[in-house]
Design brief:
Layout (H helix, E strand, L loop, with lengths): L3 E2 L23 E5 L2 E9 L6 E4 L11 H8 L3 E6 L14 H14 L5 E6 L1 H12 L4 E7 L14 H9 L3 H9 L4 H15 L11 H14 L17 E6 L7 H10 L3 E6 L6 H4 L1 H13 L4
Parallel strand pairs: 1-9, 4-5, 4-6, 6-7, 7-8, 8-9
Antiparallel strand pairs: 2-3, 3-5
Length: about 300
């Protein structure tokens, strides 16, 4: 597949979604999975294959950009959820992505789905990979956004720019702006707009991430970044169609990792978004949702 690099001019347009403020008021729902209560939100048009979203490091359901969710929900059923121990979900968060993948599969099965599409963002992309490897029959198509293959070089070495920017941040919002968005006027402006959209949520909220989740996620990320097979042979076992996407200058999950995924996955296509970083999907929610929709709507070979 040919790599596609979008121009900035294509990325700024009017929303075509007719779901308005749907995600901002989507209710919290709960389901018992092997004796553990999982929290989720489901919305959108009825579709044969729902799109299940897996969130970033210490992120909960409230960390998704509502415009992105509403755009995706304008096309299909969308399910966001807190994996075990996160936010409103019960239990203890595992300290490895393999167990998180199994928990995600158990949640999907409890909802009654036999096959779904999966979008994993950041460490959610690592969970999505293990979910697909361990339960290949469950995943039809896969989107890996701002993530990395197992054993990628320097996953556990924070870019000095990250340390300097986050250390200087005075609030949680500034942490997001410095780590998820490029240090350019456009990226910062669109990042602030995304945070403002999230702040409009009604009185339906998720719980803050606990210290246990933070520790577990950090340990899992450390293990994922340990030296491994540099041929990334495990990726050849993911035979489903995959869309790999990232910002042009991701200093959280380096953009080069996305190219590595694209290069080693058997059936992958790659989109890099200009003037953006880790939070590209929140910076350009309409265009990213459009690209996801086009990918998911393509007929299987």
């Amino acid at each position: 597949m040919k790599t596609l690099l979008l121009s900035t001019a294509l990325l700024l347009g009017l929303s075509q979604s007719d779901f308005g403020q749907g995600y901002l008021s989507a209710p919290n729902q709960f389901i018992n999975v092997d004796g553990v209560k999982f929290a989720y939100r489901r919305l959108g048009r009825q579709s044969e294959y729902p799109l299940v979203l897996l969130q970033h490091f210490r992120g909960s359901m409230d960390n998704w950009d509502p415009e992105l969710i509403d755009e995706l929900a304008g096309q299909r059923t969308v399910i966001v959820f807190d994996n075990k121990g996160v936010g409103l979900s019960e239990g203890e968060t595992p300290d490895n992505f393999e167990a998180m993948g199994d928990d995600a599969a158990a949640f999907i099965g409890a909802l009654g789905y036999k096959k779904v599409d999966v979008l994993g963002f950041s460490i959610g992309g690592a969970v999505a990979q293990t979910l697909t490897l361990q339960h290949p029959e469950l995943v039809r198509k896969l989107i890996l956004a701002g993530t990395a293959p197992k054993g990628a070089v320097k996953i556990n070495q924070r870019d000095p720019k990250i340390i300097a920017l986050v250390t200087a941040a005075r609030s949680e919002s500034e942490v997001f702006l410095t780590s998820f968005y490029a240090q350019t006027p456009l990226s910062q402006e669109l990042g602030k707009a995304s945070l403002a959209r999230r702040a409009k949520r009604s009185d339906i909220h998720d719980n803050p991430t606990s210290p246990q989740v933070l520790q577990a996620h950090n340990k899992a990320r450390q293990a994922w970044g340990m030296p491994a097979d540099t041929s990334f042979a495990y990726l050849s076992k993911i035979t489903q169609p995959v869309l790999v996407a990232n910002g042009s200058d991701d200093i959280m999950m380096f953009t080069e990792y996305s190219y590595t995924l694209y290069k080693h996955l058997p059936d992958a296509r790659l989109i890099l978004y200009p003037n953006s970083a880790h939070g590209f999907l929140f910076q350009y929610p309409i265009t990213f949702a459009k690209n996801v929709g086009e990918f998911l709507d393509q007929a299987l070979k």
